[in-house]
């Protein structure tokens, strides 16, 4: 129940971030919906394709589609007020990537992948929806250029596997991993920390 | 036999639309062929990947490859005359998306998906070849910006499921759905109807 | 052992080519790594998705990840010296696409695909990592515009199937195919041969 609420909040935050990018490009109604949809489910879909978990989840469970459709309609209606929600949306988004990272890691563990690959799957789950969104909007993905985003996912994943070595029940590492992702992202934004750009001198 | 002819005509129309976009970008021979190929089979390929129907269809049946290769060669040879075929190509393309929508819906029904997801698969089948074409050509997909295209697929799919509720044999809803897709697209182009763009005031 | 060394050299060359493209776009550390990674494994990943060979290879074998990570770190540290390696990197890259073409063909033969589709899979394996790299960097893929690249793969594949008709052990066609790919690419670069661009007069 608790996880479900986080999942729904994350899905909504991702969908609205898609709506906002799509509006900047002046896409039509269908385009806005597709961008919102891929931002929300794109990462999990890529993960499921890579591990062969098909049909992909959103085809079997209409919850995602209905949630995203509702979020898109509401976001479009209140599109001139979204700026007042900026902080809430950032928070939902951050909680969402924390949860998605852990969901991706669990999927990897279920099929017996090594921790490093599980962390990779978690990072893909949390961050590649945004990558596909940016590609469809003809932009170089923002997470390749600035912001601590994927880095937070990777470190949260590392934290999860370290915590799992302690003699505690499995829920603690799970929640601990989410908290690490959220904490690093908040600190990075707070202190304006970003990965260095790489270019020739 | 009837469906096969429509399928071949649709494949050809999609391939030639790919050739025309690729020529605008002055791609080389290989680039033109790849763009034509993904325009034709990209939607069905994405659908098959999402539902886990692999190896994807065109790997198992060389008909698509041969049809597309022939269409590309002919389109390149007569590239300065293609404008005279604009209306025929538009018609083939429109018939093609009608058929592809129904093909996608059938694939969804076969694996027991809900009607709404079947309609989604049909729309992906009919319209995402063009999306991949535009991404490879470094453009924001045209169907996200203007034209009633995906909307026609969605409404045709809704029509199909409504017609299926009537006590008639299954061929009628199938053909009915195709006719709805074609009709809406023709009306939209005729009356210059497009979805509204969404942007901040 | 011999193939493994070629494979590692090819992976490294592909990864460094990714680093160089990513540096031109001034991506951050994560972006550079992802571009290097998809350049190396993107073609094989797309091939595995199309034939349903999942989980994809790099999830199961950390060799690729470790090789690419090491290559990225070294390439970044020595980023101002990479130009002195231009010729070696071109050679590794060329040997790499020769090998990757044959690897893709073998995967197709294993699941009983026709020679023409096996050649398609080989070409995808060798050249679509670069396509995904360019898409993520918001460029029209370079292999659609200039350079004999995919063409060398296709002709190497044709050579392989022709050589297989001779009464010789299977290693000869395999190595023969690689040599054909390498030879055509070197000749094309040497004599500055490219496919013709296609556009309206």
TrEMBL record, chains A, B, C:
It comes from the Bacteria. Pfam families: Gly_transporter. The keyword Cell membrane applies. It is a multi-pass membrane protein. It is found in: Cell membrane. Residues 5-79, 91-164 form the Glycine transporter domain. Belongs to the UPF0126 family. This is Uncharacterized membrane protein YeiH. The lineage of its organism: Bacteria, Pseudomonadati, Bacteroidota, Flavobacteriia, Flavobacteriales.
